Amino acid sequence: MRSLPLPLALTARLAPVAVLATAGWALSSGPDTTSAAKDPTPPDTANRSASAPATAAVTKTYAAAPAPCESLAGKTVASLVPGAEADGKEIPSTDTEVRRTCSWNALKGYDYRWLDVSFEVMESDEAARKSYEERTADKGGGGAVPGLGDAAYSVVNLTTEDKQQTREGTVMTRAANALVIITYNGSDFETRKAPSTEEINKGAIKAAKEAVSALESGGG
Q1: How many Å apart are CA 166 and CA 187, to the nearest integer?
Q2: SS (H, E, C) the chain
């Protein structure tokens, strides 16, 4: 069975998600050594210590993004992207500690599938939470995925170009200070139809669960 050429809409992928660089800072102040030399035990030391605000360094649950191409089991890749190489292809990143993405895609007969797994590590839980809320705020038609990370959202959309349908699912998960983003889509070039919403949504959620598990087991 011959393979058909891919339409332009499927061969040109969106650029990797822009990094949301969130800068944090810690304030610290040392004692007045001049005063301490004159009076090593100032009478109001206890009062100042009790009233001064505590300054603690931000603890990052995840210091770096895990290897994305190792985040999914080979059998999962085979089931979601039939015909794809299990190793996948990592997308070049300007900072692999902050963001790493792996892609799998294949055309088997007339069926085409594409899967992206992306990890983004931020400076704090709050930064990740804000980014998650901003990115999911404008995605209508989806819903929460319970039991996945600290928060997760799934949405599936159908597009048609030159009478060829493509259905794409996105699952975004926040786990502490990291985001895990799954993009999964497919097309049938014989019928010109797309896989069902259920198939794409379940596949994207399955990949998200494995990717979050990989983050949790390798993070820290």
Answers
A1: 5
A2: CCCCCCCHHHHCCCCCCCCCCCCCCCCCCCCCHHHHHHCCCCCCHHHHHHHCCCCCCCCCCCCCCCCHHHCCCHHHHHHHCCCCCCCCEEECCCCCCCEEEEEEEEEECCEEEEEEEEEEECCCHHHHHHHHHHHHHCCCCCEECCCCCCEEEEEEEEEEECCEEEEEEEEEEEECCEEEEEEEEEEECCCCCCCCHHHHHHHHHHHHHHHHHHHHHHCC
Q: What is the pLDDT of residue 58?
A: 63
User: What is the Cα–Cα distance from 109 to 101, expressed in whole angstroms?
Assistant: 27
Residue 17 lies in a domain: no
Tokens of 210: 């494995």
Answer for the pair 91, 102: CB distance below 8 angstroms, yes or no.
yes
What pLDDT score was predicted for residue 180? 98
The whole domain housing 172 covers: 61-218
pLDDT under 70: residue ranges of the chain: 1-58, 219-220
Looking at residue 195, which CATH number applies to its domain?
Answer: 3.40.1000
pLDDT tens digit sequence for 65-90? 999 999 999 999 999 999 999 999 99
Determine, yes or no, domain membership for 191: yes
pLDDT at 31: 39
Does some domain include residue 113? yes
Q: Are 219 and 178 in contact (CB under 8 A)?
A: yes
Give this prediction's pTM. Answer: 0.74
Domain count, the chain: 1
